[in-house]
Write a structure and sequence with these properties.
This protein is an alpha/beta fold and about 290 residues long. The protein has a single domain, classed as Aldolase class I (TIM Barrel). The protein is built from twelve helices and eight strands. It has helices at about 25-35, 55-70, 85-95, 115-125, 140, 145-155, 185-190, 200-215, 220-225, 225-235, 240-250, 265-275; strands at about 5-10, 40-45, 75-80, 100-105, 130-135, 160-165, 175-180, 195-200. Strands 1-2-3-4-5-6-7-8 form an eight-stranded parallel beta barrel, surrounded by four helices. β7, α7 and β8 (about 195-200) form a beta-alpha-beta unit. The protein starts with 6 loop residues before the first strand and ends in a 9-residue tail after the last helix.
Length: about 290
């Protein structure tokens, strides 16, 4: 698989006060994150609130990311759905737009059995003409893809990696590159010699996460030093907590869309305290 980079940020989707997608804020945020350690971006993933975007908004944002990406940045489009026809449609359109790769979560809510998952990804792989990253996140989908199933899926054309968000499954998988799907396992994934991570805390501490890639001898210490960040950002869903942090730091990303709600007073205080402790609020405009 062509290198997508080691630090891929699952970028939030900024909204204006009226709830529409804020294109200019999105482009500005990409530039900021790329200057602070991100090799590329997963656009319209869970943290990008893809479940509340229309297909038009979703595909327009992917096209904007491809057109306005910082020099050298890679773009991975979220194309997952629990409707195989919809997943195929998003896959085909994202390929036409010109993304570097695709992130495809296994079907959620309807929770197909193993044969159904294989059939689903067979159709997705046929629709793709570039690398597909599987996304295993049982806490959201309601079903796990065990490593033997992942190895079976790796035999399908174009399926070349997995975003592993089940820490209990963390192990090499024959035929697949592995990306950390949870921030706290990035160090372990890198120690395994795997690809890197699809991360959210890189919105806030991108330079430190970049150092975990570039300075392997310091990796364990850096990882330990970031535990307070991971803990503070876990007080609310990633889209909510990272938007709260970014807004506090002066980045215009707006509110999340319902059914997500803004961080409450306690959650905001927890995030603000972490930012203050790390000296990140100095000079912030929020």
């Amino acid at each position: 698989m062509p290198s997508l980079g080691a630090i891929l940020t699952a970028i939030v989707t900024p909204f204006t006060d009226d709830g529409s997608v804020d294109d200019s804020a999105f482009v500005s945020l990409m530039a900021h994150l790329h200057a602070n350690g991100s090799d590329g971006f997963v656009v319209c993933g869970t943290t990008g609130e893809s479940s509340t975007l229309t297909d038009e908004e979703h595909l327009d944002l992917v096209a904007l990311a491809v057109a306005e990406r910082p020099d050298g940045a890679t773009i991975v489009a979220g194309v997952g759905s629990n409707d195989t026809r919809h997943a195929v449609h998003l896959t085909e359109r994202a390929c036409e737009i010109g993304v570097d790769a695709l992130l495809s979560v296994n079907p959620y809510y309807n929770r197909p059995n193993r044969r159904g998952i294989l059939a689903h990804y067979r159709e997705v792989s046929r629709a793709a003409d570039r690398p597909v990253i599987l996304y295993n996140i049982p806490q959201r989908t309601g079903s796990d893809m065990p490593n033997d199933l992942l190895a079976q899926l790796a035999q399908l054309e174009h399926i070349e990696a997995v975003k592993q968000a089940n820490n209990d499954n963390l192990a090499p998988v024959d035929g697949l590159a592995i990306y950390a799907g949870n921030d706290e396992i990035l160090a372990s994934v890198l120690d395994m010699g795997e690809a890197g991570g699809i991360l959210t805390a890189s919105h806030i501490v991108g330079p430190q996460m970049r150092r975990m890639v570039d300075e392997p001898g310091e990796r364990a210490a850096i990882n330990e030093s970031l535990q307070d960040v991971f803990a503070a950002l876990s007080v609310a869903p990633a889209a909510v907590s990272n938007k709260a942090a970014l807004n506090l730091l002066g980045h215009r990303v707006g509110r999340p869309r319902l059914p997500y709600v803004e961080a409450d007073e306690h959650e905001t205080a927890t995030i603000r305290a972490m930012l203050q402790d790390r000296g990140l609020l100095v000079g912030a405009t929020a």
